[in-house]
Amino acid sequence: MPMNPISSTLVHKVLPPVGAGAGAPPALILLHGQGAREDTLLKLAPHLDPRFFILSVRAPFPCGGEPDAYAWYGIPAPFTPHPEQFAESLGRLRRFVRDVKTGYPVDGRKVFLLGFSMGSVMAFALSLTAPGEVRGVVAHSGYVPENTSLEFAWDRLEGLSVFLAHGTADPVVPVGLARRARDLIVKSSAELTYREYPTPHRVGRQSLRDLSGWLGSRLS
């Protein structure tokens, strides 16, 4: 059953774990893509490991004048986040992760991010610049935001695990950007699992099974 969310920097919904585990549960924070909202990725919850304390967040900025559509930042040029909006969203996400660790009954050593598209860009922005903030990242159909002022901590990512997935028929974010992210992370001290699927810009059945299994294995 859902529970009342704490007050923090991002609007969010909460699903406590349905599977019992020893000690405090791990946390999984869901980050939606452009034009979506906090409910969008919650449909994945029944397919994820039941031990997770799931939090699905809403991006801060209205998107395209559509009701119930939000974005993490504007895009003034292809694959280039709006600098001020990007910085604000990253600051809010960083604060939110810390609030989750102190405001919910979760294991602060086992916080994971699952981002889709623009949400995966935000997941990379946090995890690759702030070593130790999260234990692992699922980045689906996104890219590493190199075209920003971020300073990546490539040589200080020990303990970070990344599941990077992308569709080879993606017309929104070309698979070449995922391969670029793969090449960057392989050279770092993070652990990487990379998968490609013959799908467009979405989380397909096989990728959902794979990422769910990957997340569950990280709890052992």
Provide a descriptive summary of the structure in words.
- With 220 residues, this protein is an alpha/beta fold.
- 25% of the residues lie in helices and 20% in strands.
- It contains four helices and nine strands; from the N terminus they run βββββαβαββαβα.
- It has helices at 83-103, 118-127, 175-186, 205-217; strands at 12-15, 27-31, 53-57, 61-62, 70-71, 111-116, 136-140, 161-167, 191-197.
- It has a seven-stranded mixed sheet with strand order 1-3-2-6-7-8-9, with helices on both faces.
- The longest helix is centred in the middle third of the chain and has 21 residues, at 83-103.
- The radius of gyration is 16 Å and the shape is globular.
- The two termini are 25 Å apart.
- The mean pLDDT is 95.
Give a concise summary.
The protein has 220 residues and is of the alpha/beta class.
How are the elements arranged and paired?
Elements: E1 12-15, E2 27-31, E3 53-57, E4 61-62, E5 70-71, H1 83-103, E6 111-116, H2 118-127, E7 136-140, E8 161-167, H3 175-186, E9 191-197, H4 205-217
Parallel strand pairs: 2-3, 2-6, 6-7, 7-8, 8-9
Antiparallel strand pairs: 1-3, 4-5
The residue fraction in helices comes out at: 25-40%
Oligomer: single chain
The average pLDDT score comes to: 95
Q: Supply the helix-strand structural class.
A: alpha/beta
Instruction: Kindly estimate the percentage of residues that lie in beta strands according to DSSP.
Output: 15-25%
* Order of helical and strand elements: EEEEEHEHEEHEH
CA-based gyration radius: 16 Å
- Could you tell me how far the N terminus lies from the C terminus, measured between alpha carbons in angstroms? 25 Å
Strand line-up across the major sheet: 1-3-2-6-7-8-9
Largest sheet: 7 strands, mixed
The shape is: globular
Pick out the low-confidence regions: none
**Strand elements, count:** 9
Number of helical elements: 4
